[in-house]
Fold these 3 entries.
Entry 1:
Amino acid sequence: MKIYMDGKLVEKKDAKVSVFDHGLLYGDGVFEGIRAYNGRVFLLDEHIDRLYDSAKAINLDIKMTKKAMTNAVVKTCAANKIKDGYIRLVVTRGDGTLGLNPYLCKKPHVIIIAAAIQLYPPEVYEQGLKIVTVGTTRNMSEALNPRIKSLNYLNNILAKIEAINCGVMEAIMLNGQGYVAEATGDNVFALKNGLLITPPAWCGALEGTTRNKCMDIADDMGLDVCEDVMSRYDLYVADEVFLTGTAAEIIAVVEVDGRKIGNGKPGVVTRALEASFRDFAQNNGTPING
Ligand code: PXG
């Protein structure tokens, strides 16, 4: 496996970072998780834009143009003969001192890994997910804005631990006001009386690339779609609930906090969206070879 590190493709065994990298010491950096389908990188411009916005928000100058970053992602996929896979793009603050001062880090490190994807098992897509809401609230926007896809995922990991300790695979995180924000690595949607709702970013959600594409697809299908504040009640009484994310794509939720959603089976609208999304993903993206 070839890993892109600061402009070069190196063997996996040589792809190493310093123990003084502020990404390791403080979670000081940003990242993206991207998919490749059928020889194309999916929603690459959207991921690159979000990466640069995240970097800007933490005052990190990537010192590489978006065009060069786009080419680096494609080149890494080509070097690893990826047709379908998962790409992890990481930008750390770089090597610094043991102190916090990020300005002592001379140069950010840019790392791109293109590998196979680990998916939920097929039966989870067939049956749908059971999830819980957890006590770990989503980071307060004024403390660490959830719109920043930073390397500091402890907030999400603490929520994931609560979910796994409850015997389920995913958690819904609420914001400080008790409103629904998102899942630990996915956005959340609820369908009620034909209206598809997802929380706005200001409620504590990352503006997911899959979320945005799903809203476009739903709109094209003639569904009414909107961003709105949601409480746990809105999830419990929804006709359908699903999660969206780069890794999960669109996955049905059939139970929230022990409340069966709809008839307890993945809903018809969720199924239709899943199929349209997969079709779109198979046929769109930035070509890896030429
Ligand atoms: N919310 C959060 C907190 C995320 O980390 C999403 C929503 C969905 O965004 P996209 O653009 O992917 O539709 C994410 C995505 C993984 C993994 O390997 C995924 C994410 C982060 C870390 C790991 O499953 N993020």
Entry 2:
Amino acid sequence: MPLILTETRDAIGTIVMNHVQKRNALSDALIEEITLALDRFREDNIRAAVLRAPVGVKVWSAGHDVSELPDRGRDPLGWSDSLRVLVRAIQEFPAPVIALIEGGVWGGACEVAIACDVLVATPEATFAITPAKLGVPYNLGGVLTLMNMIPLPVLKEMLFTAQPIPTAQALNLGIINYIKPAEEIEAFVYDLAAHMVVNSPLSIAVMKEELRLLSGAHAITPDLFERMQGLRRVVYDSHDYQEGLDAFREKRKPRFDGR
Ligand code: YXS
């Protein structure tokens, strides 16, 4: 059974993440279907894409599929990890991607949502960035995506508490563009997309790529990169990282002892 539903209408492409029984956990299989759909949208000259979950869900996406995270000793978020592939696919898609958000957005799914160009959420939606809950050392590109969108004190609070923040706070901080009630959000999002698809697709594609390149333009020396990778390795080599995975799989609270 497909894990997503897609539709194209009036140059607007829609991807519905539809693996509800696993709360749209971002598995390799789900991500592959999303990226293939984006490839098809690109071939069909789609001028705006909408990424959503089914109407009325309680969870937009539960984040990275924890069952697919490697055991300790291997970087869980390396360049070719499917979560990284999805974030890049959204950021490099040559047209606006609008996140239509109902329900909770968890872990790496927050970065996926934030990687979208415009975010519209219902009042009940929440956003929780949860590496600390699992003992995962988030990767540098991912931290940069978050840093570019979330003020540092709030990002630190979200990372250190792993607790959800409400949509109202996300709107106040400019992390999302609009809050719309569930009964209005779909019409609003497609009206927004309709205003985009009539404009120059070449101009929009170039400006989106300029913003992507400029927001990632940070001078970082090989020494600095290796130092940060070394710090991350201490974490994904640790007993705590394994404890986080084991606790999730055993459906119990983790007991982190800092080693
Ligand atoms: O027990 P079954 O087989 O029915 O499966 C359950 C859950 O195990 C499964 N599921 C997941 N499987 C893999 N990866 C996940 N992230 C994940 N989340 C859920 O879906 C089935 C239904 O889940 P259940 O019973 O808990 O649903 P619920 O409605 O009671 O609760 C929904 C959530 C989202 C509040 C709850 O599932 C939850 O807290 N999920 C984990 C959220 C989370 O911590 N995500 C971060 C994943 S790690 C990640 O994204 C990055 C690597 S990082 O850590 O760096 O951010």
Entry 3:
Amino acid sequence: MSSTDTHPGLFVTFEGGDSCGKSTQIALTKQWLEDRGVAPLLTREPGGTELGEKLRELIIHGPDDMDPHTEALLYSAQRAYHMETKVRPALLRGEVVLQDRYLDSSVAYQGAARALGVDEILQLNLWAVRGLLPDVTIFLDLDPEVAFERRTGEPDRLEREPNSFQHRVREQYYELSKTYADRYRVIDASGDIESVQQQIRRALEPLVEKHLRANKVGNA
Ligand code: TMP
């Protein structure tokens, strides 16, 4: 299945820099869907499967000398398995998938911020997932300096990078939002939790409606 193939599901991904508020917003989006009679599959990268969660630990808390190529390959390896065993089957069953990060994260973090090459990382990941792209991508846009203030706990391996790293990530997301304007929804994540959630619901509403009508489930 590639992005040009059809599946009866709705594949929603959430993207953004570190500490942009993704987890909170995904949980609220799930609640909104459940109130409409839809039980979405919530999943994340890196992670989402037993193997993926183990790899997540190794990538995020791995050795300081992990080189960018190894890091990029580990992200794409967990992704290939995650998509093959969990996400693609759910989409083929017609489910709504809410996914915390996908290949755009690799393009922004490894391709741009780590300077491995945006095209190379995109091709590697498209190969890993056999071309499957999201139906819609919610990009939570937040100034890295503001995000930094929101950070709690000990920084992990990627959070220890200088702030310029997060600025490069953000710039690449802007590029992606232009290249994939049809699937990208840019959300101003600087407001309070409720106002950000309202923007997300407005952005998703037409797609969710269409999905519910096509599948005749929920309160469509
Ligand atoms: P999270 O904190 O949003 O769960 O993401 C974990 C970290 O991994 C975060 O710093 C972003 C980074 N990351 C990449 O660098 N490349 C990827 O492909 C993914 C999925 C995450």
